[in-house]
Amino acid sequence: MNKSIGFMGGFYAISEWVMRFSITNLLWVLFNLPIGLLLLSLLYLEDSAGAMYLVVPIVALLPVLFFPATTALFAKAREWVREEVDTRHPRSFFSYYKENYKTSFLAGLVFVALWIVLIADIYYFSSRHEGLMSLFMIMGILLFVCTMNFFSVVVHYNMTFLAQLKHAFVLTIGSPLVFLAVALCSGVILYISLYIFPLLIPLFTGSLLAFLSFSAFYRLHRKIAG
């Protein structure tokens, strides 16, 4: 009897976590649906000459949709890591989206600009200085981890926008363990999602990335806080 109760309890706990991750991820995908549709159109575009007509609106929508939605996603991940699960699941996601919209939008402008500069450098120098590609790859990983760390910082600390950017940068450079945890976990999840099991993307990819990234950040935060 006890084994049966234990099994059912474990099954219920797993089911609850699956529901949390999948519902939150679906909300995140829904908020980013225009970007997703444009990306799919770009993926199946036969005439490369028309790519700019899709790239420009994608870039323009990133600060407007992607960054606020991803901030809300990280806010939900923060609840899970801190075991502060809110039963008002969809409503709390919308609340986090609105609450952090201005900061997320500004962050989107900054990080999208940095990504544009990096991608432009890669495009320009790739055919001229192949030796620089390794450097650009390292810079890309650093910028990716810094972007992820910013989401963790913005949902956990009440700081000015510039202080949040600085804290995310210092965290990326100054904490090798967090850097490796975020980079490796993200790399594995993205590889599986893109090349092995694409169904993860609408159901779990975003939630898993946010949960693991914030977990690494929060472990360091607790260690520093004592």
TrEMBL record:
Top-rank taxon: Bacteria
UniProt KW keywords: Membrane, Transmembrane, Transmembrane helix
Chain ranges passing through the membrane: 21-45, 51-75, 105-126, 132-157, 169-193, 199-220
InterPro entries referenced in this protein's UniProt entry, alphabetically: DUF624
Protein name from the UniProt record: DUF624 domain-containing protein
UniProt organism field: Salibacterium salarium
